Amino acid sequence: MSVVKKKRITYRTWINLYFIIMSITFILPFLLIVSASLTNEDILAKEGFKIIPPFIDWTGYKYVFSNVSEILRAYAVTTFQAFFGTFLSVLVMTLCAYPLSRKDFKFRKPITFFVFFTMLFNGGLIPTYLLNYKYLHLGNTIWIYILPTLCSAFYIIIFRTFFQGLPISLVESAKLDGASEIRIFFQIILPLSKPVLATVALLTLLTKWNDWYTSLIYITDSNLYTLQFLLKRILQEVEFLRYMANNTPPGIDLSYLEDMPVETLKFAMCIIAAGPMLLVFPFFQKYFAKGLTVGSVKG
């Protein structure tokens, strides 16, 4: 075996070993969270985290799902606003970005400047609240999760940059064959843009799925709570009850509240909230890196 080949094998061995170690560092915290969510509260407090719990305890999950209908309703609201909102958002942003990528569009520069300007300044919390709640009447509706965040200037610029990298000859040849701009966009441009579409869709989906702030500001109807906000409320209630149990005046017996799970409940909530996204991510993974790099380095 030649010296060059030996060096190549050694190099690959170290590279593979490095990625194996990095993979373990990413997987290990997730396994600890799963284990902690299935560990008894007292054992977790005394012995700390273990990869394999001494025995399985479903107390945290039982408390979260004590009101199954409420959790399922929150799942339904979150799923609808996340997936439908992502689909609508990506559609609108691509329709906005495509004309901006065409050099023959007359108002390309002023509109691009206007889009970029919104990245630097915004209306502020109070004007935004008044606009959405008082004038647009979006409060306590499902559309408050979708319409105000329909477009992102940053993602529009990413789409525009990616579209600029596509060969203009494809568009010109399609026009010679009599294709309209709409047909060119949906049958030529979008199929060639899968990497950037998947990347922006994934980032938008994660943002919408983890949204709890919108419910806090605009929603008072419990039927429209998102999953993240509902889990946050459940955790706050449990922490408050534990606090009351530990700080009760003499003569009032609330000792039964001391057994309520807090730490295991937190980890169970992590699994419940993040589980669906862990199933969705593999479908976007192969496009993720390519979409970000191609859409960001070209000018």
UniProtKB/TrEMBL annotation:
Superkingdom of origin organism? Bacteria
Every copy of the ABC transmembrane type-1 domain together lies at 75-273
- What are the entry keywords? Cell membrane, Membrane, Transmembrane, Transmembrane helix, Transport
Topology within the bilayer: Multi-pass membrane protein
Reply yes or no: does the keyword Cell membrane apply. yes
Q: Name one GO biological process term.
A: transmembrane transport
Main localization category: membrane
Residues passing through the membrane, by range: 15-38, 74-98, 110-130, 142-163, 184-206, 265-284
Which Pfam families does its entry note? BPD_transp_1
Q: Which organism is it from?
A: Vallitalea guaymasensis
Q: Which GO terms describe its cellular component?
A: plasma membrane
Protein name as catalogued: Carbohydrate ABC transporter permease
Indicate whether Membrane appears among the record's keywords: yes
What the entry lists under InterPro entries is as follows:
MetI-like, MetI-like_sf
Where is this protein found?
Cell membrane
The family annotation for this protein states: Belongs to the binding-protein-dependent transport system permease family.
